Amino acid sequence: MNSERIKKIFIYMLIAVNIGLFYLNYQNRQKYILSSANEKAVYQVLSENGIGMYTDIIKHSYPMRQLSVSIPSFDNDMLKKRFFDSGEDVKISLEFDRTMLVSDKKNITLKGNSLYFSCPDGTGEIEDFSKKTAEKAANDFIQKLVLDKGNEITLEKITSDNENYTFVYSESFKSNKLFCSNKSVTVAKTGIVNAEAKYYTAIGFWGLKQDICSCDEALLTMLHEIKKSGSAKEGMYVENIELGYDFEDSLESTDITGIRLVPCYRIYVSGIEYPFIINAYTNSIIGH
Q: From CA 8, how far away is CA 10, in angstroms rounded?
């Protein structure tokens, strides 16, 4: 057998192995993709229970790792520079569970990993006050509330009470939303009047990847919770579904390795004030 023939046989064997590996990888990935039949079935079940779908369903449910986070410490000098003018007389006081930075116009309260900013008279008049100019003011101010510049900040929701606008922002780590790390800014014609921020600094992913439930399974868990609580209303519909990270239960999960978050589905339903948070590992309700 000459060397040229051996070379051809070897090439054919490599091609066959690669085809086999490609097929196995394709089959493995397919099991984490929601089938059309399952998607249609969950839509039908929701419809039969009076719940519509006004958003896209999440079709991929690839295994995910946990996420380690830490609680940052606040630097009073940094906060003074960010939120107070250079000429303001800022007094710092400590109480049992909080620190307060107070001037004649502004007040910052630090409690645990949360920051509350208040400026009743506003931080400065906004010309041509409108939703658009209020949003620009909020987007500028939100930069003061960001401690971890590596995370992404996204405007999630805008509400109005006819006089003020409130802008709610989410924080993401490597495109994964941290449901427990939200921030909000309230804007009046006189400027920023209130802001709140909850902080968790992402350290990195932790542990091995684990299977998560599919989106249709999470929707059925949500439906069960609605029926159990008796909160069903005529004309209800699912407004939005997201996959991100939150605590495993209503309390922080902490040990010597730090605070860990688990993959969760967050489902917003019309007529219900708070979203459903579903642990994607166990397909169980965490919070609502």
A: 5
Taking the model in full, what pTM does it have?
Answer: 0.82
79 and 158 together in one domain: yes
Q: Is residue 22 part of a domain?
A: no
Strand locations in the chain (E):
51-53, 64-70, 91-94, 99-102, 107-111, 114-118, 152-160, 165-173, 176-188, 191-198, 201-210, 236-246, 254-255, 258-269, 276-279, 284-287
Q: How far apart are the first and last CA of the chain?
A: 72
What rounded mean pLDDT belongs to the chain? 86
Which letter does DSSP use for residue 85 in this model? -
* Positive or negative: CA dihedral 161, 165, 166, 172: positive
The answer to whether 261 and 246 are in contact (CB under 8 A) is yes
Asked if 68 contacts 252 with a C-beta cutoff of 8 angstroms, the reply is: no
Same domain membership, residue 244 and residue 194: no
Strands 51-53 and 236-246: parallel
What pLDDT was estimated at residue 16? 52
